[in-house]
Amino acid sequence: MAIHNSLSELIGNTPLIKLNHVTDGVKATIAVKVEYFNPGGSSKDRIAARIIDAAEREGKLKPGGVIVEPTSGNTGVGLAMVAQQRGYRTVFVVPDKVNETKRAVLRAYGAEVVVTPTDVEPDDPRSYYRVSDRLAETIPGAFKPNQYSNPNGPLSHYETTGPEIWEATAGQITHFVAGIGTGGTISGTGRYLKEASNGAVTIVGADPEGSIYSDPTNVHGYSIEGVGEDFYPAAYDQTIADAIEQVTDAEAYLMTRRLAGEEGLLVGGSSGMAVAAAVAYAKKHDLDASQTVVVLLPDSGRSYLEKIFNDDWMIDNGFADVVASTSRPSILD
Ligand code: PMP
Protein backbone atom coordinates (compact mmCIF):
# COMPACT_ATOMS: atom_id res chain seq x y z
CA MET A 1 0.00 0.00 0.00
CA ALA A 2 1.14 3.56 -0.62
CA ILE A 3 -0.07 7.12 -0.48
CA HIS A 4 -1.03 8.05 -4.03
CA ASN A 5 -0.16 11.49 -5.33
CA SER A 6 -3.36 11.96 -7.28
CA LEU A 7 -6.60 10.25 -8.16
CA SER A 8 -5.42 9.89 -11.78
CA GLU A 9 -2.90 7.25 -10.64
CA LEU A 10 -5.85 5.04 -9.67
CA ILE A 11 -7.35 4.91 -13.17
CA GLY A 12 -7.31 1.38 -14.62
CA ASN A 13 -6.17 -1.93 -13.12
CA THR A 14 -9.82 -2.82 -12.49
CA PRO A 15 -10.62 -6.35 -11.26
CA LEU A 16 -11.81 -9.40 -13.20
CA ILE A 17 -14.53 -11.41 -11.44
CA LYS A 18 -16.03 -14.77 -12.42
CA LEU A 19 -19.80 -14.89 -12.85
CA ASN A 20 -21.36 -17.75 -10.89
CA HIS A 21 -25.15 -17.41 -11.09
CA VAL A 22 -26.42 -15.71 -14.26
CA THR A 23 -24.65 -17.92 -16.79
CA ASP A 24 -27.58 -20.33 -17.23
CA GLY A 25 -25.61 -23.55 -17.67
CA VAL A 26 -22.84 -22.13 -19.90
CA LYS A 27 -19.73 -24.33 -19.39
CA ALA A 28 -17.13 -21.71 -20.34
CA THR A 29 -15.78 -19.39 -17.66
CA ILE A 30 -17.37 -15.95 -18.00
CA ALA A 31 -15.43 -13.25 -16.15
CA VAL A 32 -16.36 -9.57 -15.97
CA LYS A 33 -14.01 -6.58 -15.88
CA VAL A 34 -15.70 -4.16 -13.52
CA GLU A 35 -14.94 -0.61 -14.64
CA TYR A 36 -16.90 1.10 -11.87
CA PHE A 37 -13.74 0.60 -9.77
CA ASN A 38 -12.22 3.54 -11.68
CA PRO A 39 -12.12 6.73 -9.54
CA GLY A 40 -14.72 8.56 -11.69
CA GLY A 41 -16.86 5.40 -11.78
CA SER A 42 -16.51 4.27 -15.40
CA SER A 43 -14.26 3.09 -18.23
CA LYS A 44 -14.34 6.66 -19.57
CA ASP A 45 -11.74 7.74 -16.98
CA ARG A 46 -9.21 5.89 -19.14
CA ILE A 47 -9.96 7.89 -22.28
CA ALA A 48 -10.18 11.18 -20.37
CA ALA A 49 -6.68 10.76 -18.95
CA ARG A 50 -5.10 9.86 -22.30
CA ILE A 51 -6.97 12.54 -24.28
CA ILE A 52 -5.82 15.22 -21.81
CA ASP A 53 -2.23 13.88 -21.72
CA ALA A 54 -2.05 13.97 -25.53
CA ALA A 55 -3.59 17.45 -25.78
CA GLU A 56 -1.00 18.76 -23.30
CA ARG A 57 1.82 17.08 -25.24
CA GLU A 58 0.59 18.46 -28.56
CA GLY A 59 0.16 21.97 -27.12
CA LYS A 60 -3.63 21.96 -27.65
CA LEU A 61 -4.22 22.37 -23.92
CA LYS A 62 -2.16 24.93 -22.02
CA PRO A 63 -2.26 26.10 -18.38
CA GLY A 64 -5.54 27.92 -17.84
CA GLY A 65 -7.15 26.03 -20.72
CA VAL A 66 -10.81 25.08 -20.96
CA ILE A 67 -12.19 21.69 -22.04
CA VAL A 68 -15.46 21.94 -24.00
CA GLU A 69 -17.35 18.75 -24.94
CA PRO A 70 -20.95 17.82 -25.78
CA THR A 71 -21.53 14.98 -23.29
CA SER A 72 -23.85 14.25 -20.41
CA GLY A 73 -22.45 11.04 -19.13
CA ASN A 74 -19.40 9.14 -18.11
CA THR A 75 -17.01 10.95 -20.46
CA GLY A 76 -17.99 14.24 -18.84
CA VAL A 77 -17.28 12.87 -15.37
CA GLY A 78 -13.91 11.47 -16.47
CA LEU A 79 -12.88 14.71 -18.18
CA ALA A 80 -14.16 16.88 -15.29
CA MET A 81 -12.26 14.79 -12.72
CA VAL A 82 -8.94 14.74 -14.59
CA ALA A 83 -9.29 18.42 -15.59
CA GLN A 84 -9.93 19.46 -12.00
CA GLN A 85 -6.81 17.58 -10.85
CA ARG A 86 -4.72 19.48 -13.40
CA GLY A 87 -6.28 22.94 -13.01
CA TYR A 88 -8.34 23.16 -16.22
CA ARG A 89 -11.91 24.47 -16.40
CA THR A 90 -14.62 22.38 -18.09
CA VAL A 91 -17.80 23.27 -19.98
CA PHE A 92 -20.23 20.50 -20.97
CA VAL A 93 -23.07 21.02 -23.40
CA VAL A 94 -26.02 18.70 -22.76
CA PRO A 95 -29.45 18.28 -24.35
CA ASP A 96 -32.37 19.19 -22.05
CA LYS A 97 -33.52 15.52 -21.88
CA VAL A 98 -30.54 14.87 -19.59
CA ASN A 99 -31.85 14.79 -16.04
CA GLU A 100 -30.90 17.21 -13.27
CA THR A 101 -29.04 14.52 -11.30
CA LYS A 102 -26.55 14.01 -14.14
CA ARG A 103 -26.07 17.77 -14.53
CA ALA A 104 -25.51 18.05 -10.77
CA VAL A 105 -22.76 15.40 -10.88
CA LEU A 106 -20.85 17.40 -13.52
CA ARG A 107 -21.29 20.67 -11.57
CA ALA A 108 -20.10 18.95 -8.39
CA TYR A 109 -16.75 18.30 -10.08
CA GLY A 110 -16.56 22.05 -10.87
CA ALA A 111 -17.85 21.92 -14.45
CA GLU A 112 -20.19 24.44 -16.06
CA VAL A 113 -23.19 22.90 -17.81
CA VAL A 114 -24.89 24.52 -20.82
CA VAL A 115 -28.36 23.09 -21.53
CA THR A 116 -29.61 23.00 -25.13
CA PRO A 117 -32.96 21.92 -26.67
CA THR A 118 -33.20 18.20 -27.57
CA ASP A 119 -35.83 18.56 -30.30
CA VAL A 120 -33.81 20.41 -32.95
CA GLU A 121 -31.87 19.14 -35.97
CA PRO A 122 -28.10 18.55 -35.49
CA ASP A 123 -27.27 21.51 -37.80
CA ASP A 124 -29.67 23.91 -36.02
CA PRO A 125 -27.59 26.68 -34.34
CA ARG A 126 -29.24 25.75 -31.00
CA SER A 127 -28.28 22.05 -31.22
CA TYR A 128 -25.80 20.73 -28.75
CA TYR A 129 -23.28 19.96 -31.48
CA ARG A 130 -23.40 23.51 -32.87
CA VAL A 131 -23.42 25.20 -29.44
CA SER A 132 -20.35 23.22 -28.37
CA ASP A 133 -18.57 24.07 -31.67
CA ARG A 134 -19.33 27.77 -31.13
CA LEU A 135 -18.11 27.71 -27.50
CA ALA A 136 -14.92 25.86 -28.52
CA GLU A 137 -14.25 28.55 -31.16
CA THR A 138 -14.98 31.57 -28.96
CA ILE A 139 -13.63 30.64 -25.48
CA PRO A 140 -9.91 31.54 -25.29
CA GLY A 141 -7.74 28.44 -24.70
CA ALA A 142 -10.62 26.06 -25.43
CA PHE A 143 -9.93 22.44 -26.41
CA LYS A 144 -12.62 20.08 -27.70
CA PRO A 145 -11.71 16.39 -27.10
CA ASN A 146 -14.37 14.97 -29.48
CA GLN A 147 -14.51 11.42 -28.15
CA TYR A 148 -16.15 10.09 -31.34
CA SER A 149 -13.10 10.84 -33.48
CA ASN A 150 -10.20 11.29 -31.04
CA PRO A 151 -7.71 8.42 -31.65
CA ASN A 152 -6.57 8.64 -28.02
CA GLY A 153 -9.87 7.02 -26.94
CA PRO A 154 -9.18 3.65 -28.60
CA LEU A 155 -5.45 4.05 -27.85
CA SER A 156 -6.13 4.30 -24.11
CA HIS A 157 -7.82 0.88 -24.27
CA TYR A 158 -5.02 -0.52 -26.46
CA GLU A 159 -2.46 0.59 -23.88
CA THR A 160 -4.31 -0.25 -20.64
CA THR A 161 -7.52 -2.32 -20.87
CA GLY A 162 -6.11 -4.88 -23.33
CA PRO A 163 -2.82 -5.58 -21.49
CA GLU A 164 -4.64 -5.74 -18.12
CA ILE A 165 -6.98 -8.46 -19.42
CA TRP A 166 -4.17 -10.39 -21.13
CA GLU A 167 -2.10 -10.40 -17.93
CA ALA A 168 -4.98 -11.12 -15.54
CA THR A 169 -6.00 -14.19 -17.57
CA ALA A 170 -2.35 -15.25 -18.15
CA GLY A 171 -3.15 -15.30 -21.87
CA GLN A 172 -5.98 -17.80 -21.36
CA ILE A 173 -8.72 -15.48 -22.66
CA THR A 174 -10.46 -16.92 -25.74
CA HIS A 175 -13.28 -14.36 -26.22
CA PHE A 176 -13.71 -10.67 -25.42
CA VAL A 177 -17.19 -9.11 -25.32
CA ALA A 178 -17.91 -5.35 -25.11
CA GLY A 179 -20.73 -2.98 -26.01
CA ILE A 180 -20.12 -0.49 -28.81
CA GLY A 181 -20.81 3.25 -28.33
CA THR A 182 -18.05 5.42 -29.80
CA GLY A 183 -16.37 2.07 -30.50
CA GLY A 184 -13.22 3.03 -28.59
CA THR A 185 -13.38 0.18 -26.07
CA ILE A 186 -13.84 -2.67 -28.53
CA SER A 187 -11.45 -1.24 -31.12
CA GLY A 188 -8.53 -0.59 -28.74
CA THR A 189 -8.93 -3.57 -26.41
CA GLY A 190 -9.79 -5.91 -29.29
CA ARG A 191 -6.78 -4.87 -31.37
CA TYR A 192 -4.42 -5.46 -28.43
CA LEU A 193 -5.89 -8.88 -27.62
CA LYS A 194 -5.72 -9.98 -31.27
CA GLU A 195 -2.10 -8.91 -31.56
CA ALA A 196 -1.09 -10.50 -28.23
CA SER A 197 -2.76 -13.83 -29.14
CA ASN A 198 -1.77 -13.90 -32.84
CA GLY A 199 -5.43 -13.65 -33.74
CA ALA A 200 -6.62 -16.43 -31.41
CA VAL A 201 -8.96 -14.24 -29.30
CA THR A 202 -12.45 -13.84 -30.78
CA ILE A 203 -13.88 -10.32 -30.40
CA VAL A 204 -17.65 -10.03 -29.96
CA GLY A 205 -19.47 -6.69 -30.08
CA ALA A 206 -22.70 -6.23 -28.15
CA ASP A 207 -25.23 -3.85 -29.68
CA PRO A 208 -28.77 -2.70 -28.90
CA GLU A 209 -31.52 -3.69 -31.33
CA GLY A 210 -32.04 -0.51 -33.39
CA SER A 211 -28.37 0.50 -33.62
CA ILE A 212 -26.33 0.60 -36.82
CA TYR A 213 -23.56 -1.80 -35.77
CA SER A 214 -25.70 -4.94 -35.69
CA ASP A 215 -28.17 -3.97 -38.44
CA PRO A 216 -27.58 -0.88 -40.62
CA THR A 217 -30.88 -1.55 -42.43
CA ASN A 218 -33.02 -1.15 -39.32
CA VAL A 219 -31.83 1.86 -37.34
CA HIS A 220 -34.36 3.18 -34.82
CA GLY A 221 -34.65 4.33 -31.19
CA TYR A 222 -33.98 2.14 -28.18
CA SER A 223 -33.76 2.62 -24.44
CA ILE A 224 -30.29 1.40 -23.33
CA GLU A 225 -27.90 4.32 -22.70
CA GLY A 226 -24.28 4.77 -23.78
CA VAL A 227 -24.18 2.16 -26.54
CA GLY A 228 -25.32 1.86 -30.15
CA GLU A 229 -25.20 4.58 -32.80
CA ASP A 230 -26.89 5.79 -35.97
CA PHE A 231 -23.58 6.51 -37.73
CA TYR A 232 -20.08 4.96 -37.81
CA PRO A 233 -17.75 7.07 -35.62
CA ALA A 234 -14.06 7.38 -36.55
CA ALA A 235 -13.17 5.85 -33.15
CA TYR A 236 -14.76 2.55 -34.30
CA ASP A 237 -12.48 0.20 -36.25
CA GLN A 238 -14.83 -1.99 -38.30
CA THR A 239 -12.14 -4.67 -38.82
CA ILE A 240 -11.87 -5.73 -35.15
CA ALA A 241 -15.17 -7.44 -34.21
CA ASP A 242 -15.53 -11.04 -35.45
CA ALA A 243 -19.22 -11.13 -34.52
CA ILE A 244 -21.87 -8.73 -33.26
CA GLU A 245 -24.61 -9.95 -30.95
CA GLN A 246 -27.82 -7.95 -31.00
CA VAL A 247 -29.59 -7.53 -27.65
CA THR A 248 -33.06 -6.08 -27.00
CA ASP A 249 -33.74 -3.50 -24.29
CA ALA A 250 -35.72 -6.12 -22.33
CA GLU A 251 -32.92 -8.73 -22.50
CA ALA A 252 -30.37 -6.12 -21.40
CA TYR A 253 -32.49 -4.86 -18.50
CA LEU A 254 -33.32 -8.37 -17.33
CA MET A 255 -29.62 -9.25 -17.15
CA THR A 256 -28.79 -5.88 -15.49
CA ARG A 257 -31.27 -6.63 -12.70
CA ARG A 258 -30.06 -10.24 -12.39
CA LEU A 259 -26.44 -9.07 -12.03
CA ALA A 260 -27.48 -6.91 -9.05
CA GLY A 261 -29.81 -9.48 -7.49
CA GLU A 262 -27.81 -12.67 -8.09
CA GLU A 263 -24.16 -11.60 -8.37
CA GLY A 264 -24.15 -8.46 -6.19
CA LEU A 265 -22.94 -6.41 -9.15
CA LEU A 266 -24.84 -3.10 -9.36
CA VAL A 267 -23.96 -2.09 -12.92
CA GLY A 268 -25.54 -0.08 -15.76
CA GLY A 269 -27.74 -1.22 -18.64
CA SER A 270 -24.88 -1.45 -21.14
CA SER A 271 -23.17 -3.89 -18.75
CA GLY A 272 -26.30 -6.06 -18.61
CA MET A 273 -26.42 -5.89 -22.40
CA ALA A 274 -22.81 -7.07 -22.72
CA VAL A 275 -23.32 -10.00 -20.32
CA ALA A 276 -26.57 -10.98 -22.10
CA ALA A 277 -24.63 -10.97 -25.40
CA ALA A 278 -21.84 -13.10 -23.88
CA VAL A 279 -24.23 -15.72 -22.51
CA ALA A 280 -26.18 -15.86 -25.80
CA TYR A 281 -22.94 -16.18 -27.81
CA ALA A 282 -21.56 -18.92 -25.51
CA LYS A 283 -24.79 -20.92 -25.85
CA LYS A 284 -25.05 -20.46 -29.61
CA HIS A 285 -21.45 -21.58 -30.17
CA ASP A 286 -21.53 -24.24 -27.45
CA LEU A 287 -18.37 -22.91 -25.76
CA ASP A 288 -16.81 -25.52 -23.47
CA ALA A 289 -15.07 -25.49 -20.10
CA SER A 290 -11.67 -24.83 -21.71
CA GLN A 291 -12.78 -21.37 -22.87
CA THR A 292 -12.56 -18.06 -21.01
CA VAL A 293 -14.87 -15.22 -21.98
CA VAL A 294 -14.09 -11.73 -20.62
CA VAL A 295 -16.90 -9.16 -20.63
CA LEU A 296 -16.28 -5.45 -19.97
CA LEU A 297 -18.81 -3.73 -17.66
CA PRO A 298 -18.50 0.04 -18.32
CA ASP A 299 -20.22 1.70 -15.34
CA SER A 300 -22.19 1.47 -12.09
CA GLY A 301 -25.92 0.94 -11.66
CA ARG A 302 -26.09 3.97 -9.35
CA SER A 303 -26.76 6.21 -12.36
CA TYR A 304 -29.84 4.17 -13.29
CA LEU A 305 -31.68 3.85 -9.96
CA GLU A 306 -34.55 5.98 -11.30
CA LYS A 307 -34.91 3.85 -14.44
CA ILE A 308 -33.77 0.20 -14.67
CA PHE A 309 -34.01 -0.35 -10.90
CA ASN A 310 -37.31 1.52 -10.51
CA ASP A 311 -40.25 -0.90 -10.97
CA ASP A 312 -42.74 1.89 -11.81
CA TRP A 313 -40.50 3.34 -14.53
CA MET A 314 -39.89 -0.17 -15.92
CA ILE A 315 -43.61 -1.01 -16.04
CA ASP A 316 -44.50 2.40 -17.59
CA ASN A 317 -41.88 1.80 -20.30
CA GLY A 318 -43.07 -1.66 -21.33
CA PHE A 319 -40.79 -3.86 -19.21
CA ALA A 320 -43.42 -5.37 -16.86
CA ASP A 321 -42.25 -8.91 -17.74
CA VAL A 322 -38.71 -8.04 -16.63
CA VAL A 323 -40.03 -6.71 -13.32
CA ALA A 324 -42.14 -9.84 -12.82
CA SER A 325 -39.27 -12.23 -13.47
CA THR A 326 -36.82 -10.39 -11.20
CA SER A 327 -39.16 -9.80 -8.25
CA ARG A 328 -39.43 -12.10 -5.24
CA PRO A 329 -42.40 -12.35 -2.89
CA SER A 330 -41.86 -10.24 0.24
CA ILE A 331 -40.78 -12.08 3.38
CA LEU A 332 -42.89 -9.61 5.35
CA ASP A 333 -46.29 -10.69 3.95
N1 PMP B 1 -21.54 1.90 -21.79
C1 PMP B 1 -21.67 3.13 -21.30
C2 PMP B 1 -22.53 3.36 -20.11
C3 PMP B 1 -21.02 4.20 -21.93
O1 PMP B 1 -21.14 5.45 -21.44
C4 PMP B 1 -20.24 3.94 -23.09
C5 PMP B 1 -19.56 5.08 -23.80
N2 PMP B 1 -20.42 5.79 -24.68
C6 PMP B 1 -20.16 2.63 -23.58
C7 PMP B 1 -20.81 1.64 -22.88
C8 PMP B 1 -19.44 2.27 -24.85
O2 PMP B 1 -18.06 2.48 -24.87
P1 PMP B 1 -17.33 2.98 -26.18
O3 PMP B 1 -17.74 4.41 -26.40
O4 PMP B 1 -15.89 2.85 -25.88
O5 PMP B 1 -17.75 2.15 -27.33
What does the model show?
Its cofactor is pyridoxal 5'-phosphate. Residues 8-299 form the Tryptophan synthase beta chain-like PALP domain. InterPro entries: Cys_Synth/Cystath_Beta-Synth, TrpB-like_PALP, TrpB-like_PALP_sf. This is Cystathionine beta-synthase. Pfam families: PALP. The structure is a single chain. By secondary structure, this protein is α/β, with parallel strands linked by helices. The chain has two domains: 7-37 and 161-321, Rossmann fold (3-Layer(aba) Sandwich); 63-140, 3-Layer(aba) Sandwich (Rossmann fold). The chain is 36% helix and 15% strand. The protein has helices at 44-57, 74-86, 100-108, 128-138, 152-168, 184-196, 249-263, 269-284, 311-316, 320-326; strands at 16-18, 29-34, 66-69, 89-95, 112-116, 142-143, 175-179, 202-208, 243-247, 292-297. The strands form two sheets. It has a six-stranded mixed beta sheet with strand order 1-2-10-7-8-9. A four-stranded parallel beta sheet has the order 5-4-3-6, sandwiched between helices. Helix 1 crosses helix 2, helix 5 (152-168) packs across helix 6 (184-196) and helix 7 (249-263) crosses helix 8 (269-284). The radius of gyration is 20 Å and the shape is globular. It starts with 15 loop residues before the first strand and ends in a 7-residue tail after the last helix. Residues 73-74, 179-185, 226-227, 268, 270, 298-299 line the site of 4'-deoxy-4'-aminopyridoxal-5'-phosphate.
